[in-house]
Design goal:
The structure holds two protein chains of two kinds.
Chain A: H1 64-75, H2 98-104, H3 107-110, H4 122-139, E1 143-145, H5 151-168, E2 175-179, H6 185-192, E3 196-200, H7 210-216, E4 221-227, H8 239-248, E5 252-257, E6 276-279, E7 299-301, E8 313-316, E9 322-325, H9 342-377, E10 394-397, H10 399-405, H11 409-418, E11 425-426, E12 435-438, H12 446-465, H13 468-471, H14 484-489
Parallel strand pairs in A: 2-3, 2-4, 4-5, 5-6
Antiparallel strand pairs in A: 1-7, 6-7, 8-9, 10-12, 11-12
Helix pairs in contact in A: 2-9, 4-9, 5-6, 7-8, 9-12
Chain B: H1 7-17, H2 22-29, H3 49-61, E1 70-73, H4 84-90, H5 93-96, H6 108-125, E2 129-130, H7 137-152, E3 156-160, H8 165-176, E4 186-189, H9 200-206, E5 211-217, H10 228-237, E6 241-246, E7 265-269, E8 285-289, E9 301-306, E10 312-317, H11 323-326, H12 339-375, E11 381-383, E12 392-397, H13 402-411, E13 414-417, E14 430-434, H14 441-454
Parallel strand pairs in B: 1-13, 3-4, 3-5, 5-6, 6-7
Antiparallel strand pairs in B: 2-8, 7-8, 9-10, 11-12, 12-14
Classes of the chains: A alpha/beta, B alpha/beta.
Chain lengths: 501, 456
């Protein structure tokens, strides 16, 4: 399936390319912007002497062609979902439909100014209103905000709402319960709200037990933060009981919606005890990750938390026209400027239109099918600490491999690069030593999954026969393994003329 | 539909797993009592690709795009040139559809581009270091305020009344969970009514041993270029840090960098540098500070290193500040940021270069000063403030209510605003005019004519 050398190793085409500042020549230009006949004024007319810039900023001086070649060459050093299988667990690297890109670039969206008069933004507000309604329906919630810019900001928003709810009840409370399988953002978001994170150990089955939650649940616990399915790819079977235990003591249930893609059309978090949850539109709803954003982290909630949602809210009047409302007395306020990452909302909405209510069950069902199919194909190859039927992802470890051959998770990951695949998420979740967390997603064909299983088989065989191949991997990429220690010990975070450390 | 499975695929895969049907397999993974019976009435029915595009065009058509009018709208989002080459780089699958660069060997494109971005941002703001991006200008400013609290180990944040009000609101929200209920650790420093800049005397009165940060707009929400040097001096004398928030970074093409004027933390919104206004997002937050304070900095950082053969390469670094390592002791919870938007800024400023950026800044300011001079002479209008401004100016409408005025401008093919009454009750008669290099002389002519007609 890919271009391989005699040893069966893929060939990556790439060019060397320095930083852009080392391209070009002084005075060279990429674009001309001053209209003919316009004479540029001297800014000293408007600003006092000390106000003007003494040194021009260090910027590249390249032609358009040089700039384009530079960035195209850089792009060639990336691995992307459009090029190959990218089974990064919990990150949900599913295919990003191209029609969504076209939709987001329509002038009426891309060129819409956020400070336009209300009658000129009716289409945008209608889109947001429809998207909020669809997300509410998918999740079983009463209201949604689309404002947070990414999942972590959504989490922060949800915790602020939880805090506001408790403050209204007379005591903000001081703790949140965080299972040991949680994403690192959970305790960090808790701390940003002045909450102390209390870890709750998961059971031997890898899930949260209501009785364990009950042991630490008291009137100082503001909420429990549950990722469901959790980061081991397992459904939290006791979720209703956990919710009951928490609710009985006046606490709230926060759902981390990073893995909503496994539930869509089949399980609605709002129906099983979750009070408030953030989503990641760049995961479940297929918007591109862009090498680390932009994302969009909507927050949905049950009716009693809706008064705390960020402002402005999108409101539909009886006459059918839309407006932004920012007079909500109990709101936590704003978490960013304007209304959120609107361009991401357009893509997610287009995705929902294409999948439709009929397709939601296929998305989750086939994500679960692909994960379990891969797990079955490589059954016994790696140690699998939690052997139950998984949801959309599952976790393996290097336990046996390391004992038998000295080969570790990172070696497996790097060797996968040689074989033309992006590695799974590694060394996460932290509760599992040497974890390989694998999420194929529903957009992959069985052929791809079979080829990936074959690659893992080959790696395990190599670990026994010729482990050096793994320790030295990757050998097909432009660069070998990079020195993280050097980068952290003497940080070079910007380019300086002459380069070097 | 974006799933590739044929019925035969599904049968074969289920057989291998040992499940009878998709529902049967799913039923093994979750208990039966959690399955929903919802009809999903508020989720649209599946659309074919043609109907989908028709529907999206219909919705887009209900908006008035800024490119369809002569646009003088500002208020924190600015319609500047977005060169077609920028978007063509962004749509390269290798950039667009990659994840956060965790596997450095196959993410060198993203990593080197971010390293270039950090260099460009640091240069623009005059800081020693800049991070890999934040969500937007407002949350950047809020993270700047929180960082100043960590560095100074003090709690109070002073926010200029002339800082973009949405930025101030975000700072307030971000700080709300960190103090006891009912206690506010945020104070507002008024602006001078005649000049439109932060009142230095009021600032002096509020500064004290509990103040961690002073946050000011540069330029501020009125387009006014604040005297950062004086504000920084006052803040420093009281042991506080000065945090600048720049909603219009094109200004830094001609204005002195915040750090050269004494700012300790410089933040900005990067949208004007290569991104469309897109109804307010996605843009990109810029964030820079001193190297000595870098360990308190939020967000991701890319650093240079070498590979096993000694070749230069790039990795995510100083991760011990971050949530996935430090968890509750992290400097921030940010992980996904605005990576692709940071790339847009990098491509855009590579195309512009130092001279192009300077020209863009001069042109943007020049049109605004031309417009201000002429609008100030139209009967029924006057300029609100006397301080130096960049590409945005506040105008008072003495005859026509502002909201009516802005609606009537749209009917005449023009856009302006925002109306400042939305944020400042005592400025119900004021609105903003903003210009950029896309504003043509003829646009200013048309604006002046329209204002004259509307107020007659």
């Amino acid at each position: 399936m890919s271009d391989r050398n005699a040893d069966g190793v893929v060939r990556h085409v790439s060019f060397d390319e320095p930083v852009v500042f080392e391209r070009g020549a002084p005075g060279r230009r990429g674009v001309r912007i001053v209209p003919r006949g316009t004479k540029l004024a001297d800014p000293a007319r408007w600003f006092g002497e000390g106000m003007l810039r003494q040194e021009p900023p260090v910027l590249p001086e390249v032609s358009e062609a040089e700039a384009v070649r530079h960035f195209v060459r850089l792009s060639g050093w990336n691995f992307s979902i459009d090029q190959g299988f990218y089974p990064l667990g919990s990150c949900t690297m599913k295919y990003n439909p191209k029609v969504n890109e076209a939709a987001a670039r329509l002038d009426g969206f891309a060129e819409l100014h956020p400070m336009s008069p209300t009658q000129g933004i009716q289409g945008a507000l209608e889109l947001m209103w429809r998207l909020e309604r669809a997300l509410s329906d998918i999740c079983g919630f009463d209201a949604f905000t689309l404002q947070p810019s990414a999942g972590a900001q959504g989490e922060l928003t949800a915790l602020m709402m939880i805090r506001a709810h408790h403050v209204a009840g007379g005591n903000p409370r001081s703790k949140v319960l965080v299972p040991d399988t949680a994403h690192g953002t959970n305790p960090a978001s808790a701390a940003l709200n002045g909450y102390r994170a209390v870890a709750v150990k998961s059971s031997e089955q890898g899930t949260l037990r209501a009785e364990d939650v009950a042991k630490v649940m008291d009137e100082e616990v503001a909420a429990v933060m549950i990722t469901n399915p959790n980061t081991l790819g397992l459904f939290e079977r006791e979720i209703r009981d956990v919710a009951r235990v928490v609710h009985e003591k006046g606490g709230l249930v926060f759902g981390d919606g990073a893995n909503l893609n496994a539930l869509m059309g089949r399980v609605r978090p709002g129906e099983i005890g979750v009070d408030v949850m953030q989503l990641n539109l760049h995961k479940s709803f297929s918007t591109p990750h862009g090498g680390g954003g932009p994302g969009c982290g909507p927050v949905g909630c049950v009716a009693r938390l809706a008064p705390y949602l960020p402002v402005p809210r999108v409101v539909r009047d009886d006459a059918g026209s839309f407006r932004l409302e920012d007079k909500m007395p109990a709101t936590i306020g704003r978490v960013r400027s304007f209304y959120g990452n609107f361009g991401v909302m357009v893509r997610a909405y287009a995705y929902i239109l294409a999948v439709g209510r009929e397709g939601l069950k296929d998305v989750s069902g086939l994500a679960v099918l692909n994960a379990n199919y891969l797990a079955a194909l490589i059954d016994g190859l790696f140690f699998r600490p939690y052997d139950a039927t998984c949801m959309h992802e599952f976790v393996l470890t290097d336990k046996n491999l390391k004992k038998d051959t000295g080969v570790q998770t990172m070696d497996v990951a790097k060797r996968l690069l040689d074989l033309g695949f992006h590695p799974p998420t590694v060394y996460f979740p932290l509760v599992v030593h040497g974890a390989l967390m694998i999420e194929p997603t529903e957009t992959e064909t069985p052929d791809t999954i079979e080829a990936f299983a074959e690659a893992l088989r080959r790696i395990v065989a190599e670990a026994g026969e010729d482990p050096a191949k793994l320790f030295d991997a990757p050998r097909s990429t432009r660069l070998g393994r990079l020195d993280d220690t050097l980068a952290a010990r003497t940080p070079v975070l910007t380019w300086k003329p002459g380069g070097g450390r | 539909m974006y799933t590739p499975h044929t019925d035969e695929d599904i049968r074969r895969m289920l057989a291998r797993i040992g499940a009878g049907s998709l529902d049967d397999l799913y039923g093994k993974a979750v208990p039966a009592d959690v399955l929903t019976r919802a009809p999903f009435e508020n989720v649209p029915a599946a659309h074919d690709v043609v109907s989908l595009l028709v529907h999206m065009r219909e919705l887009a058509g209900k908006n008035v795009a800024s490119c369809s009018k002569r646009c003088f709208t500002g208020g924190g989002a600015y319609r500047h040139l977005v060169h077609p080459a920028v978007d063509q780089m962004l749509t390269r699958s290798e950039f667009l559809t990659a994840y956060t660069p965790y596997q450095a060997e196959v993410s060198q494109g993203t990593l080197q581009a971010i390293f270039e971005f950090q260099t460009i941002v640091a240069g623009l703001m005059g800081t020693e270091v800049a991070n890999a991006s934040m969500y937007d200008g407002a949350s950047s400013a809020a993270e700047g305020a929180l960082m100043a609290r960590r560095v100074t180990r003090r709690s109070r944040v002073l926010v200029s009344e002339a800082l973009h009000p949405e930025y101030a609101q975000v700072i307030r929200t971000y700080m709300s969970g960190l103090a006891a209920p009912g206690v506010s650790e945020l104070s507002v420093i008024p602006y001078r009514r005649a000049k439109g800049d932060t009142d230095p005397d009021a600032l002096g009165d509020r500064l004290g041993a509990d103040v961690a940060a002073v946050v000011v707009g540069y330029p501020n929400v009125f387009g006014v270029v604040e005297d950062i040097r004086a504000l920084a001096r006052a803040a420093h004398e009281a042991g506080a840090m000065l945090v600048t928030a720049t909603a219009e970074p094109v200004a830094l093409g001609i204005l002195e960098s915040p750090t050269a004027l004494g700012a300790d933390i410089a933040t900005a919104e990067g949208q004007p540098l290569g991104l469309p206004v897109s109804f307010g997002g996605p843009g990109v937050g810029l964030f820079g500070c001193r190297m000595a304070d870098a360990r308190h900095m939020p967000g991701r950082l890319v650093g240079q290193t070498v590979d096993t053969a000694g070749k230069t390469g790039y990795v995510l670094t100083l991760a011990m500040r971050e949530q996935h390592i430090r968890r509750e002791r992290a400097t921030s919870n940010i992980c996904t940021n605005q990576g692709l938007c940071a790339l847009a800024v990098t491509v855009h400023l590579s195309l512009l270069g130092p001279e192009g950026l300077r020209e863009q800044a001069v042109l943007s300011a020049q049109r605004c000063h031309e417009a201000a001079e002429r609008v100030g002479k139209v009967a029924g209008f006057e300029l609100a403030f006397g301080a130096p401004f960049f590409n945005e100016v506040v105008v008072r409408s003495k005859k026509v209510p502002v909201v009516d005025l802005l609606d009537r401008l749209v009917d005449r093919g023009l856009m302006a605003g925002p109306a400042l009454g939305r944020w400042y009750p005592d400025m119900a008669d004021a609105f903003v005019l903003a210009t950029t290099e896309l504003t043509r002389e003829a646009d200013v002519d048309m604006l002046v004519r329209a204002l004259g007609e509307v107020s007659r």
